[in-house]
Amino acid sequence: MKRLSRRLRSPAAPRQFLSPIALWKSRGQKHPNDMDSAFSIQPVGRFARPSEAVKRPKEFACFSYDDEHKFHLGDRSMRWYYTPELDVDLSKGVDQFVKHDSSVDEHLDSLLKTIMHHEKQTGKKIDAQVVTWRGCVTKFMASPFEDRDGFELNATLYQDCIFIEENHAYRMESEREQAKQPWRGRIPREHMTFWGYKFETLATLPAPWGKTSREYIEGRKDEPVNNLAQYCSVVRTGVGNTVLCLGGEVDAIWDSKPRKQGDAIRWVELKTSAEINSDKDYSFFERKLCKFWIQSFLLGVPKIIVGFRSRDGILRKVEEINTEEIPATVSRRNRSWDGNVCINFAADFLQWLRTKIDDEGVWRIRRRAGSPQIEVFKTSEDTGHGRILTDEFINHRIKLSLPAASPAQEEKSQEEVVEKEP
Fold this sequence. Notes:
By secondary structure, the protein is α+β, with helices and mostly antiparallel strands. Helices cover about 35% and strands about 20% of the residues.
C-alpha cells in the first residue's frame, strides 16, 4: 500500500501526453498558438490614458516612382495641390485608367534602397528600432476600433531592428475572396476605387502653379489617371519608447519644401468621401476619419483635403481639415474612436513586439478578422530573413559596421598596391 501511495503521489508524466504548446516549450521553442505570443486588444479601456510621447515625424530622405513605376531617389514625382473644379464626374476616364499591378510583391526594396543611400551619405546606420511602411503601423494603431478586416505581416530581426512588411500572399488571397463577394451597389466597385485617384489628378499639378500652363490647369478633368507615379516620404518618428523609420506615399505639397532638412513640411493628404446628408452619414464619415488621421499623423501631414461626392460620383464640395484637430472634433461628437487610445495601444504593442521578435528568421504578425488579439509567431523559415531584406542591404550593413580605415592605413594599402604592380 505504501508503494502504491507513493506512485499515486508521484505519477510518471509520459512525454507523449504533453500538450503541443508544452512540448514546444520543453524544446525551448514557441508554439504558434501559445497565447504568451499574443497581444490582447481588449479591454480597450486600459489604453484610455494621457497620450504616450510621440516624436514629430521628420523627413530625412525620399524616393519616387515615375510614370512607369521605376524607382528613383529624390522628389521627381512630387505634386502640388491646386483647388479642383467642382461638379466633375469622378468616373470619367475609368476605361483609360493606367493601374499599378498590385500582384507584384515589392517587399521593402525601395525603402531599403533609400535608407542605404542615406547611410552611405552619413556614414552611420539609422537608429530606428522598427523599419516599415506607414500602412503597417496604421493597422496597429487602428486595431482598437477596427476589427472587420484582419491582417498578416511578415517581420525579421536584423542588427537589433525589426523590419516589417505586408504578407503579400495573404493580401492577394483577401482580394480574391473580396472579388467573389456579390456586389449590390449601383456603381461598379472598380469605379468607386477609381474615384480617389481621379480626385488626386483633379487636385494636383506636376509643378508649382506659377510654372504650370493655364491649359493644363483647366484641362485636369480630361487628364489620364495613372497611379504608377508616386512620391514617398521617409521619416524618423517615434511612439512611446519605440523609434520608427516609416516610408509612405504623400499625395501633394501645399507650397514648397523648407530649405532645412527635418523642418515641418506642409504636406497635403487627399481623400474622397460620400456627401454628408444625415446623422448616419456623419457617423460613417467619423469612423473613416480614424484612418485618415492615423495615416497623416504618422508621416507628419498637417492637412487633409476631402472631396465630398454624390452617390453617383460627382464631386460636390472640397473641405480642408487640420490633422491635429481631428481627435478633439471626434471627442466632442459621437466619440466613435479616441486618438489617445490609438497612440497608447501602438506604443504598448510595439514595445511588447520588440520583446517577442528576439532572433532572426521570418516572423508572422497576424490578426484574424474580428479577433480580440494580435498573434506573433515564427514561421517555418527559422533562420535568415526571407525576402524581407535584400542581399544588397545586408552586405551594405556589414560593410558599414566594419571599422573605418585610418588615412595612414589607406596610404599604406595604396603603396602596397603600387609595389605589386609590374
